[in-house]
Amino acid sequence: MSNSVWITGPQFLLKDKTDDSEKFTLQNPDTDKELRPDVLSLKTGIEYPQRLGTSRFGRFSLWKTLIKAIAHLKHVAQSFASKSSCTRWHICSESASVNAIDEARKLVLREAQIDTFSDEIECLTTRKPLAKSSCVVSLTPFLDKENMLRIGGRIQNSNVPDIEKHPILLSGRHHIALLIFSNKEFNRLKMGIIVLNILADFMYDRLTLDGQHLRARKDYDISMLYNKHRNLNIHRPSNSNNRHYSPWGGTWQDIQNTDTAIGDDIERIRLIRNELHHSTTYELDDTRFIELCNIIHEMVRRFDQHNKPKVMYTKRVKEILSKAKHV
Questions:
Q1: Helix count (H) and strand count (E) of the chain?
Q2: 277 in Cβ contact with 193 (< 8 Å)
Q3: How far apart are CA 69 and CA 128, in angstroms?
Q4: For 4-35, what is each residue's pLDDT tens digit?
Q5: Sequential DSSP letters for 177-222
Q6: Angle made by CA atoms 205, 207, 212, in degrees to the nearest 5
Q7: If 0-12 CB within 10 Å is exposed, 13-18 middle and 19+ buried, where does residue 139 land?
Q8: What's the maximum distance between 2 C-alpha atoms anywhere in the chain?
Q9: DSSP H helical segments within 82-209, as ranges?
Protein backbone atom coordinates (compact mmCIF):
# COMPACT_ATOMS: atom_id res chain seq x y z
CA MET A 1 0.00 0.00 0.00
CA SER A 2 2.92 2.33 0.77
CA ASN A 3 4.09 2.02 -2.83
CA SER A 4 0.68 2.86 -4.24
CA VAL A 5 0.58 5.56 -6.89
CA TRP A 6 -2.11 7.21 -4.86
CA ILE A 7 0.47 7.80 -2.11
CA THR A 8 3.75 8.27 -4.00
CA GLY A 9 2.30 10.12 -6.96
CA PRO A 10 3.22 9.72 -10.66
CA GLN A 11 6.82 8.76 -11.40
CA PHE A 12 7.61 11.73 -13.69
CA LEU A 13 7.18 14.06 -10.73
CA LEU A 14 10.05 12.28 -8.95
CA LYS A 15 12.48 12.90 -11.80
CA ASP A 16 14.92 15.83 -11.57
CA LYS A 17 14.62 16.72 -15.25
CA THR A 18 11.63 16.75 -17.51
CA ASP A 19 11.83 14.58 -20.60
CA ASP A 20 11.70 16.91 -23.62
CA SER A 21 12.16 14.18 -26.15
CA GLU A 22 8.56 14.44 -27.33
CA LYS A 23 8.01 17.46 -29.58
CA PHE A 24 4.86 18.99 -31.04
CA THR A 25 4.60 20.92 -34.32
CA LEU A 26 3.17 24.43 -34.26
CA GLN A 27 -0.15 24.99 -36.00
CA ASN A 28 -0.31 27.63 -38.71
CA PRO A 29 -2.82 30.25 -37.45
CA ASP A 30 -4.06 30.87 -41.00
CA THR A 31 -5.19 27.23 -41.31
CA ASP A 32 -6.16 26.61 -37.70
CA LYS A 33 -9.90 25.96 -37.68
CA GLU A 34 -10.08 26.56 -33.95
CA LEU A 35 -9.29 30.25 -34.41
CA ARG A 36 -12.09 32.66 -35.24
CA PRO A 37 -11.46 34.23 -38.66
CA ASP A 38 -11.45 38.00 -39.11
CA VAL A 39 -14.76 39.22 -40.52
CA LEU A 40 -14.41 42.03 -43.04
CA SER A 41 -17.30 44.27 -44.12
CA LEU A 42 -17.04 46.53 -47.14
CA LYS A 43 -19.04 49.66 -47.91
CA THR A 44 -19.27 51.20 -51.33
CA GLY A 45 -19.19 54.97 -51.28
CA ILE A 46 -19.57 57.47 -54.09
CA GLU A 47 -17.23 60.39 -54.35
CA TYR A 48 -17.86 63.43 -56.46
CA PRO A 49 -14.41 64.36 -57.72
CA GLN A 50 -13.70 67.93 -58.69
CA ARG A 51 -17.07 69.18 -57.55
CA LEU A 52 -17.78 72.80 -58.15
CA GLY A 53 -19.79 73.05 -54.95
CA THR A 54 -22.47 75.59 -54.14
CA SER A 55 -20.75 77.57 -51.42
CA ARG A 56 -20.08 80.48 -53.78
CA PHE A 57 -23.57 80.44 -55.28
CA GLY A 58 -24.81 82.37 -52.26
CA ARG A 59 -22.95 85.44 -53.51
CA PHE A 60 -25.37 85.74 -56.43
CA SER A 61 -28.75 87.35 -56.06
CA LEU A 62 -29.93 86.77 -59.65
CA TRP A 63 -30.40 83.42 -61.38
CA LYS A 64 -29.44 84.80 -64.79
CA THR A 65 -26.21 86.33 -63.47
CA LEU A 66 -25.19 83.06 -61.81
CA ILE A 67 -25.79 81.03 -64.98
CA LYS A 68 -23.83 83.48 -67.13
CA ALA A 69 -20.93 83.41 -64.66
CA ILE A 70 -20.83 79.61 -64.56
CA ALA A 71 -21.04 79.40 -68.35
CA HIS A 72 -18.10 81.79 -68.68
CA LEU A 73 -16.08 79.97 -66.00
CA LYS A 74 -16.70 76.61 -67.65
CA HIS A 75 -15.66 77.96 -71.05
CA VAL A 76 -12.43 79.39 -69.62
CA ALA A 77 -11.67 76.08 -67.88
CA GLN A 78 -12.10 74.27 -71.18
CA SER A 79 -9.77 76.73 -72.88
CA PHE A 80 -7.05 75.97 -70.31
CA ALA A 81 -7.60 72.25 -70.92
CA SER A 82 -7.17 72.75 -74.68
CA LYS A 83 -10.74 71.63 -75.31
CA SER A 84 -11.64 74.85 -77.04
CA SER A 85 -10.36 77.01 -79.86
CA CYS A 86 -10.00 79.84 -77.34
CA THR A 87 -7.01 80.13 -75.03
CA ARG A 88 -6.66 81.03 -71.35
CA TRP A 89 -8.54 83.89 -69.65
CA HIS A 90 -10.71 85.83 -72.06
CA ILE A 91 -14.25 86.97 -72.79
CA CYS A 92 -15.99 85.82 -75.95
CA SER A 93 -19.43 85.06 -77.31
CA GLU A 94 -19.08 81.28 -77.07
CA SER A 95 -19.78 81.31 -73.33
CA ALA A 96 -23.09 83.07 -74.03
CA SER A 97 -24.33 80.55 -76.60
CA VAL A 98 -27.57 78.66 -76.04
CA ASN A 99 -25.71 75.39 -75.53
CA ALA A 100 -23.25 76.92 -73.04
CA ILE A 101 -26.06 78.50 -71.01
CA ASP A 102 -28.01 75.24 -70.99
CA GLU A 103 -24.96 73.25 -69.83
CA ALA A 104 -24.28 75.79 -67.09
CA ARG A 105 -27.88 75.56 -65.92
CA LYS A 106 -27.67 71.77 -65.71
CA LEU A 107 -24.38 71.98 -63.81
CA VAL A 108 -25.83 74.36 -61.22
CA LEU A 109 -28.94 72.23 -60.73
CA ARG A 110 -26.87 69.05 -60.35
CA GLU A 111 -24.70 70.69 -57.70
CA ALA A 112 -27.79 71.84 -55.83
CA GLN A 113 -29.23 68.32 -55.96
CA ILE A 114 -26.02 66.78 -54.62
CA ASP A 115 -26.11 69.25 -51.74
CA THR A 116 -29.61 68.22 -50.71
CA PHE A 117 -30.14 64.68 -51.98
CA SER A 118 -26.67 63.12 -51.84
CA ASP A 119 -27.93 60.00 -50.01
CA GLU A 120 -30.71 59.48 -52.53
CA ILE A 121 -28.33 59.94 -55.46
CA GLU A 122 -25.92 57.41 -53.94
CA CYS A 123 -28.71 54.85 -53.52
CA LEU A 124 -29.94 55.32 -57.07
CA THR A 125 -26.42 55.12 -58.49
CA THR A 126 -25.71 51.85 -56.65
CA ARG A 127 -29.22 50.56 -57.44
CA LYS A 128 -30.28 50.33 -53.83
CA PRO A 129 -33.74 51.21 -52.48
CA LEU A 130 -34.15 54.61 -50.89
CA ALA A 131 -34.36 54.83 -47.14
CA LYS A 132 -37.91 54.96 -45.81
CA SER A 133 -36.95 58.10 -43.92
CA SER A 134 -36.12 59.93 -47.16
CA CYS A 135 -38.29 62.99 -47.72
CA VAL A 136 -38.63 62.20 -51.44
CA VAL A 137 -39.20 58.44 -51.35
CA SER A 138 -42.90 58.92 -52.17
CA LEU A 139 -41.95 60.78 -55.37
CA THR A 140 -40.16 57.71 -56.79
CA PRO A 141 -37.14 59.74 -57.95
CA PHE A 142 -34.73 58.50 -60.60
CA LEU A 143 -31.58 59.68 -62.37
CA ASP A 144 -31.90 60.54 -66.04
CA LYS A 145 -29.19 60.09 -68.66
CA GLU A 146 -27.61 63.39 -67.59
CA ASN A 147 -27.56 62.37 -63.90
CA MET A 148 -30.31 64.83 -63.06
CA LEU A 149 -32.62 63.76 -60.25
CA ARG A 150 -36.21 63.76 -61.50
CA ILE A 151 -39.63 62.81 -60.18
CA GLY A 152 -40.96 59.42 -61.27
CA GLY A 153 -44.17 57.64 -60.37
CA ARG A 154 -47.21 56.46 -62.29
CA ILE A 155 -47.41 59.70 -64.26
CA GLN A 156 -44.75 58.23 -66.56
CA ASN A 157 -47.56 56.35 -68.30
CA SER A 158 -49.43 59.55 -69.14
CA ASN A 159 -49.56 61.01 -72.62
CA VAL A 160 -47.64 64.22 -71.87
CA PRO A 161 -44.08 65.33 -72.70
CA ASP A 162 -41.24 63.97 -70.55
CA ILE A 163 -40.40 67.40 -69.16
CA GLU A 164 -43.87 67.51 -67.61
CA LYS A 165 -43.96 63.88 -66.53
CA HIS A 166 -40.57 64.03 -64.85
CA PRO A 167 -39.74 67.52 -63.55
CA ILE A 168 -36.38 68.19 -61.95
CA LEU A 169 -36.32 67.60 -58.20
CA LEU A 170 -35.03 70.55 -56.19
CA SER A 171 -35.35 71.49 -52.54
CA GLY A 172 -37.40 74.63 -52.03
CA ARG A 173 -35.08 75.68 -49.20
CA HIS A 174 -31.94 75.67 -51.30
CA HIS A 175 -30.49 79.01 -52.40
CA ILE A 176 -30.73 77.94 -56.04
CA ALA A 177 -34.47 77.40 -55.70
CA LEU A 178 -34.82 80.85 -54.16
CA LEU A 179 -32.92 82.36 -57.10
CA ILE A 180 -35.18 80.62 -59.60
CA PHE A 181 -38.39 81.60 -57.83
CA SER A 182 -37.28 85.23 -57.51
CA ASN A 183 -36.31 85.40 -61.17
CA LYS A 184 -38.43 87.93 -63.08
CA GLU A 185 -38.59 85.81 -66.22
CA PHE A 186 -39.52 82.75 -64.18
CA ASN A 187 -42.36 84.58 -62.46
CA ARG A 188 -43.66 85.73 -65.81
CA LEU A 189 -43.54 82.15 -66.99
CA LYS A 190 -45.44 81.10 -63.88
CA MET A 191 -48.06 83.79 -64.50
CA GLY A 192 -48.38 82.55 -68.07
CA ILE A 193 -49.10 79.03 -66.85
CA ILE A 194 -51.84 80.43 -64.59
CA VAL A 195 -53.34 82.19 -67.62
CA LEU A 196 -53.35 78.84 -69.41
CA ASN A 197 -55.84 77.63 -66.85
CA ILE A 198 -58.21 80.40 -67.93
CA LEU A 199 -57.72 79.48 -71.58
CA ALA A 200 -58.48 75.86 -70.68
CA ASP A 201 -61.72 77.08 -69.09
CA PHE A 202 -62.72 78.53 -72.45
CA MET A 203 -62.02 75.21 -74.20
CA TYR A 204 -64.06 73.35 -71.57
CA ASP A 205 -66.95 75.84 -71.73
CA ARG A 206 -66.94 75.66 -75.52
CA LEU A 207 -67.26 71.87 -75.47
CA THR A 208 -70.19 72.16 -73.07
CA LEU A 209 -71.90 74.66 -75.37
CA ASP A 210 -71.30 72.27 -78.26
CA GLY A 211 -73.38 69.65 -76.44
CA GLN A 212 -70.60 67.51 -74.99
CA HIS A 213 -71.23 65.78 -71.66
CA LEU A 214 -68.04 66.20 -69.65
CA ARG A 215 -66.78 65.36 -66.21
CA ALA A 216 -65.78 68.10 -63.77
CA ARG A 217 -63.40 70.76 -65.09
CA LYS A 218 -60.61 69.64 -62.75
CA ASP A 219 -60.45 66.30 -64.57
CA TYR A 220 -59.22 67.89 -67.81
CA ASP A 221 -56.01 69.61 -68.79
CA ILE A 222 -55.35 71.51 -72.02
CA SER A 223 -54.04 68.43 -73.84
CA MET A 224 -57.18 66.44 -73.08
CA LEU A 225 -59.47 69.33 -74.03
CA TYR A 226 -57.55 69.90 -77.26
CA ASN A 227 -57.92 66.23 -78.21
CA LYS A 228 -61.66 66.40 -77.59
CA HIS A 229 -62.00 69.46 -79.83
CA ARG A 230 -59.87 67.78 -82.45
CA ASN A 231 -61.93 64.59 -82.39
CA LEU A 232 -65.19 66.52 -82.40
CA ASN A 233 -63.88 68.53 -85.37
CA ILE A 234 -66.62 71.17 -85.24
CA HIS A 235 -64.32 74.19 -85.11
CA ARG A 236 -61.71 73.40 -87.73
CA PRO A 237 -58.84 75.88 -88.04
CA SER A 238 -58.66 78.20 -91.03
CA ASN A 239 -56.54 77.03 -93.96
CA SER A 240 -56.82 73.51 -92.55
CA ASN A 241 -56.51 72.01 -96.02
CA ASN A 242 -52.98 73.39 -96.27
CA ARG A 243 -51.74 71.61 -93.13
CA HIS A 244 -49.10 68.97 -93.72
CA TYR A 245 -50.59 66.05 -91.80
CA SER A 246 -54.16 66.86 -90.76
CA PRO A 247 -56.57 69.79 -90.43
CA TRP A 248 -55.24 70.25 -86.88
CA GLY A 249 -51.76 70.77 -85.49
CA GLY A 250 -48.90 72.68 -87.07
CA THR A 251 -46.76 75.58 -85.91
CA TRP A 252 -47.09 79.33 -85.46
CA GLN A 253 -46.27 79.74 -89.15
CA ASP A 254 -49.49 77.91 -90.05
CA ILE A 255 -51.64 80.55 -88.33
CA GLN A 256 -51.99 84.02 -89.82
CA ASN A 257 -52.92 87.11 -87.81
CA THR A 258 -56.16 87.28 -89.79
CA ASP A 259 -57.15 83.73 -88.76
CA THR A 260 -59.65 84.36 -85.96
CA ALA A 261 -61.88 81.27 -86.01
CA ILE A 262 -62.45 79.28 -82.82
CA GLY A 263 -60.27 76.48 -84.20
CA ASP A 264 -57.44 78.96 -84.82
CA ASP A 265 -57.56 80.13 -81.22
CA ILE A 266 -57.63 76.54 -79.96
CA GLU A 267 -54.44 75.96 -81.94
CA ARG A 268 -52.95 79.14 -80.45
CA ILE A 269 -53.73 77.84 -76.96
CA ARG A 270 -51.96 74.58 -77.78
CA LEU A 271 -48.87 76.40 -79.06
CA ILE A 272 -48.72 78.76 -76.07
CA ARG A 273 -49.12 75.83 -73.71
CA ASN A 274 -46.29 73.90 -75.39
CA GLU A 275 -44.00 76.93 -75.36
CA LEU A 276 -44.49 77.58 -71.65
CA HIS A 277 -44.50 73.99 -70.44
CA HIS A 278 -41.53 72.91 -72.53
CA SER A 279 -39.30 75.78 -71.46
CA THR A 280 -35.91 74.47 -70.33
CA THR A 281 -34.52 77.83 -69.22
CA TYR A 282 -37.34 78.81 -66.82
CA GLU A 283 -37.44 82.17 -68.57
CA LEU A 284 -39.81 84.30 -70.61
CA ASP A 285 -38.02 87.42 -71.80
CA ASP A 286 -39.60 90.85 -72.21
CA THR A 287 -40.11 90.65 -75.97
CA ARG A 288 -41.78 87.25 -76.00
CA PHE A 289 -43.82 88.11 -72.91
CA ILE A 290 -45.31 91.17 -74.65
CA GLU A 291 -45.98 89.17 -77.83
CA LEU A 292 -47.85 86.45 -75.94
CA CYS A 293 -49.77 89.02 -73.90
CA ASN A 294 -51.04 90.66 -77.09
CA ILE A 295 -52.05 87.29 -78.57
CA ILE A 296 -53.87 86.28 -75.37
CA HIS A 297 -55.68 89.61 -75.04
CA GLU A 298 -57.01 89.31 -78.58
CA MET A 299 -58.11 85.72 -78.01
CA VAL A 300 -60.01 86.32 -74.77
CA ARG A 301 -61.93 89.20 -76.37
CA ARG A 302 -63.17 86.75 -78.97
CA PHE A 303 -63.82 84.14 -76.28
CA ASP A 304 -66.14 86.54 -74.45
CA GLN A 305 -68.14 86.98 -77.65
CA HIS A 306 -68.29 83.25 -78.39
CA ASN A 307 -69.11 81.86 -74.94
CA LYS A 308 -70.56 84.86 -73.06
CA PRO A 309 -69.38 83.61 -69.64
CA LYS A 310 -70.71 84.95 -66.33
CA VAL A 311 -67.25 86.30 -65.48
CA MET A 312 -65.53 87.64 -68.57
CA TYR A 313 -62.31 85.91 -69.59
CA THR A 314 -60.79 89.32 -70.36
CA LYS A 315 -61.26 90.44 -66.76
CA ARG A 316 -59.66 87.31 -65.32
CA VAL A 317 -56.69 87.45 -67.69
CA LYS A 318 -56.18 91.17 -67.13
CA GLU A 319 -55.89 90.64 -63.37
CA ILE A 320 -53.19 88.00 -63.79
CA LEU A 321 -51.14 89.73 -66.48
CA SER A 322 -51.22 93.06 -64.66
CA LYS A 323 -49.41 91.36 -61.77
CA ALA A 324 -46.88 89.81 -64.13
CA LYS A 325 -45.95 93.19 -65.61
CA HIS A 326 -44.89 94.43 -62.18
CA VAL A 327 -42.74 91.39 -61.37
A1: 10, 2
A2: yes
A3: 36
A4: 777 777 777 777 665 566 666 777 777 777 76
A5: HHHHHT-HHHHHHHHHHHHHHHHHHHHHHHHHHTT-----GGG--H
A6: 125
A7: middle
A8: 138
A9: 98-125, 162-165, 175-181, 184-209
